[in-house]
Write a structure and sequence with these properties.
Elements (H helix, E strand, L loop, with lengths): L3 H4 L11 H7 L11 H4 L28 H7 L35 E5 L4 H5 L6 H8 L18 H9 L4 H9 L3 E3 L1 H4 L6 H6 L5 E6 L4 E5 L7 H19 L2 H16 L7 H9 L6 H12 L8 H10 L3 H66 L2 H6 L1 E5 L5 E6 H54 L1 H6 L1
Parallel strand pairs: 1-3, 2-4
Antiparallel strand pairs: 3-4, 5-6
Length: 473
């Protein structure tokens, strides 16, 4: 809500000037009253608390045609303060959802809040507003109605670094630095893109940056992990393009909208662009043009560029848009590559795990068979030893060993000796086999732990993408 809502609380309860007051001020008869709110409130009818009442059209004017502040103050029933014009009320935010970016279902996305406040009429005109008031307002700083223009402080090193990485032009840097950008960590960022009630109403994936048109401020969330720096760079460029759109003449914006719509329509339906754009626009279709301008400018590129007129406008604010879009694609690729790596490693680990399971099962079965054959051997050897010598001398035995080895029919002592040799061979091999199985199982366990570490790392980055979740972790 802009400053006029503070100057005249309720235009519908205005009290006309008395004849004596008109005579003293040299006023003519009252002009026909005009419903000025029609010209200022566009779109669907706003709630009473959000309407912007304006001063009536029959206020006395100075010889220059401008309306003195004391006149407006008296018309509002308030005393004139020598300090000058009042500052603006905070601009109400319109939270809009920017859904998560995900190609594999594992990658979190981000949310952008675009606060398109009350400054539009300074750049696109003031339908229905008297000429004197329009003249006064056209010179009014966005951040404070009638307040002296304030020089923005020098940008921080973090802001300059983001502007460099975003390839902002001199004009783009002017907008970015002029909005006094604050590059903040998770805890410091919390609540900066909206008052507490609005912030509480935001979905779990919160804003990662915003441009507040009324006070002309930009806030950028920078994740702590340097691998996600590209997201902060993209956010800085995105919000700067919102500021740029606010300052484009209405006619130029009208010409750009169909070009932007055509570029959006040309994108592959399988991508996430439309989903992100729709999420940011939400239930506020009036935000679609500025969101298209910001999203296309930071995420869409093809060889040779987009429409010539569109690229000409972007070139005013961005020196190398192909490189800026590469920041977006590279940032998305970081998480996509991590997810793909986890998926491939998990599939390999699953196959190794199945092989190890079969090897372990075979070892256990062989060890059990060998134990059974040892018992059979010892039983048979005891039986033969207990026989009379004459019977034992005439006894012949054959045996099929557990691994398929055939011991042909031969004197009992010969067959038992061969069986004893096989038993010793197999029992000597068991520890080596078991050790090999254990090494493979340990390696598989280590790989699973490594993969779990990758998953935890990805989850930590996903948490970093959401400042609300990051500040709570």
């Amino acid at each position: 809500m802009h400053a006029l809502s503070r100057v005249v609380p309720d235009a519908n309860r205005w009290t006309p000037w008395s004849p004596a007051q008109r005579t003293a001020l040299g006023m003519s008869a009252p002009a026909k009253r005009v419903d000025l709110t029609r010209g200022l409130n566009h779109g669907p009818r706003l709630a009473d608390a959000e309407r912007v009442p304006l001063p009536p059209d029959d206020l006395p004017r100075a010889p220059s045609g401008r309306i003195p502040q004391w006149v407006i103050d008296e018309a509002a029933g308030s005393s004139t303060e020598p300090a000058g014009w009042r500052t603006a009320s905070p601009v109400p935010l319109v939270p809009v959802r920017r859904p998560r970016r995900s190609k594999t279902g594992a990658v979190a996305a981000v949310i952008v809040v675009a606060a398109l406040g009350a400054s539009w009429w300074l750049t696109s005109g003031s339908p229905g507003l008297p000429g004197g008031v329009t003249s006064a307002l056209s010179r009014t700083p966005v951040a404070g109605f009638g307040a002296p223009a304030q020089v923005a402080p020098p940008p921080s090193a973090e802001a300059v670094a983001l502007a460099d990485a975003a390839h902002l032009s001199d004009e783009g840097r002017g907008l970015f630095y002029g909005a006094q950008p604050e590059v903040l960590g998770a805890k410091a960022f919390t609540g900066r893109c909206g008052p507490a009630p609005v912030a509480q109403a935001l979905p779990a994936g919160g804003a990662v940056g915003c441009y507040l048109a009324g006070p002309d401020r930009i806030f950028v969330y920078e994740p702590a992990d340097p691998r996600l720096r590209g997201h902060a760079v993209e956010t800085a460029a995105h919000e700067t393009l919102h500021a740029a759109w606010e300052r484009l003449p209405a006619g130029e914006r009208d010409r750009l909208v169909p070009l932007l719509e055509a570029e959006v329509a040309s994108l592959p339906p399988a991508g996430t662009f439309r989903e992100e754009l729709a999420g940011s626009v939400g239930s506020h279709p009036e935000n679609r043009p500025t969101e298209m301008f910001a999203y296309v400018g930071t995420q869409v590129w093809r060889d040779g560029g987009l429409a010539r007129e569109l690229e000409a406008v972007y070139a005013r604010f961005i020196t190398d848009r192909a490189a800026l879009v590469a920041v977006h694609t590279d940032g998305a690729a970081v998480l996509d590559a991590m997810s793909a790596n986890i998926q491939a490693a998990s599939q390999t680990a699953a196959a190794v795990g199945m092989t190890n399971a079969r090897t372990r099962a075979q070892y256990d079965a062989d060890a059990a068979s060998l134990a059974y054959y040892r018992q059979a051997y010892e039983t048979k050897a005891a039986q033969v030893a207990a026989m009379p010598a004459a019977n034992r001398a005439g006894l012949r035995l054959s045996w099929v060993w557990w691994d398929g080895t055939t011991l042909p029919m031969a004197p009992a002592e010969q067959t038992l000796a061969a069986a004893a040799a096989l038993l010793a061979r197999d029992e000597a091999a068991l520890p080596t086999r078991e050790a090999a199985v254990k090494v493979a199982e340990d390696a598989a366990a280590a790989e699973r732990a490594r993969i779990q570490g990758l998953v935890s790392d990805l989850q930590a980055l996903q948490t970093q993408l959401d400042p609300a979740a990051a500040s709570a972790s």
